[in-house]
Design goal:
GO molecular function: ATP binding; ATP hydrolysis activity
Keywords: ATP-binding, Nucleotide-binding, Transport
Order of helices and strands: EEEHEHEHHHEHEHEEEHEEHEH
Number of helices: 10
Bound molecules: adenosine-5'-triphosphate
Distance between the termini: 40 Å
Family: Belongs to the ABC transporter superfamily.
Structural class: alpha/beta
Protein name: ABC transporter related
Pfam family, one: ABC_tran
CATH class of the largest domain: Alpha Beta
Low-confidence stretches: 306-310
Radius of gyration: 24 Å
Strand content: 25-35%
Number of strands: 13
Length: about 300
């Protein structure tokens, strides 16, 4: 049986008349880097808060590391970087990390070593003695990530961890997430930066109004939709009809200009069949150019482009 670190069934949260999370059913296996994607107001942060026991669900059930949310046995093994972190600005970076190490019940014998390790991990070793009040937004996000990892958690929730970071910072966070995965840590990532998600995550769930619309693997290139551009000569009238049978989701091939055809197929496995159809029709194939459909395109299609700004 798969070892799920997160399992929810029909999780729901209502604030007055506002349904923040409608009906969330989700399973995240151990060791996965899982992305939670959805437009503003989709209920992502509320869902994470319910999983952490910070918000009480109106209905439904959740298990995190096998326990009910907020169970101290689970919480000790979870790290969390909230979207809006309230920092203790009067503390120096190392004091802030020491506070969080103590809150995580890290034994005194390892605290100092872990503080130095996580400061190095997030590239802030030289700022250990600086008060957080003097930190830039990006540095605060890095130190927030350091506190989430100080106790070597099994499961880490990162809510928009790179929103304030420059490209170097984003690369650093990508590498940290890859290291976490290599060590078997499960990462639950909320992000609007779909390029980052594509590079770091194993699987993504698209949510809207607190419901999972779809989950998909981000690894399996053969399973991802592919847009194909063809350059052909001598195409017969029947070629477009014949290619239509290979298209994804009821889409149809389009002749964009003489000799140029575009179509979308469900995965790379269909590419040889396209070539076979063209040759069988008697046309000559000069170019077949596949391009994976980006996560951003999928997001716009699945979630809908007009559902922001709540
Ligand atoms: N404490 C609260 N009281 C009332 N409404 C709330 C509360 N928290 C969240 N909401 C509402 O619930 C909905 C979901 O909010 P949530 O913050 O979970 O969305 P999100 O997907 O994390 O959004 P974003 O991408 O903008 O961070 C929103 O409409 C929000 O206004």
């Amino acid at each position: 049986m798969p070892d799920y670190v997160i399992e929810t069934t029909g999780l729901r949260k209502v604030y007055g008349a506002k349904v923040a999370v409608a009906d969330l059913t989700l399973q995240v296996p151990r060791g996965e880097v899982f992305a939670f994607l959805g437009p503003n107001g989709a209920g992502k942060s509320t869902a994470v808060k319910m999983l952490l026991g910070l918000v009480k669900p109106t209905e439904g059930d959740a298990r995190v590391l096998g326990f009910a949310p907020a169970d101290p046995r689970a919480m000790a093994r979870i790290g969390f970087l909230p979207e809006h972190f309230r920092f203790h600005e009067w503390l120096q970076a190392h004091e802030f990390l020491d506070l969080h190490a103590r809150l995580s019940s890290l034994p005194a014998s390892v605290r100092q070593r872990r503080i130095l390790e996580v400061l190095a991990l997030v590239g802030l070793s030289e700022h250990a003695q600086r008060p957080l009040a003097n930190f830039s937004k990006g540095m605060l996000q890095r130190i927030g990530l350091a506190q989430a990892l100080i106790h070597e958690p099994e499961l880490v929730f990162l809510d928009e961890p790179t929103s304030a970071l420059d490209p170097f910072g984003r690369m650093l966070v990508r590498n940290i997430i890859r290291d976490l995965r290599a060590h078997g840590t499960t990462v639950f990532l909320n992000s609007h930066l779909l390029g980052e998600v594509e590079l770091t995550c194993d699987r993504a769930a698209f949510i809207r109004e607190g419901r999972v619309l779809r989950t998909l693997s981000l690894h399996d290139a053969a399973a991802g939709r592919v847009r194909v551009t063809l350059r052909v000569a001598g195409a017969s009238n029947g070629l477009l009809t014949s290619l239509a049978a290979l298209c994804a989701n009821g889409s149809t091939p389009q002749e964009t200009s003489p000799g140029m055809i575009e179509l979308e197929v469900a995965g790379e496995d269909t590419l040889p069949q396209i070539a076979e159809h063209i040759v069988a029709s008697g046309a000559r194939l000069y170019a077949l150019t596949p391009q994976r459909v980006s996560l951003e395109q999928l997001f716009l299609e699945i979630v809908g482009a007009d559902d922001s700004g709540q």
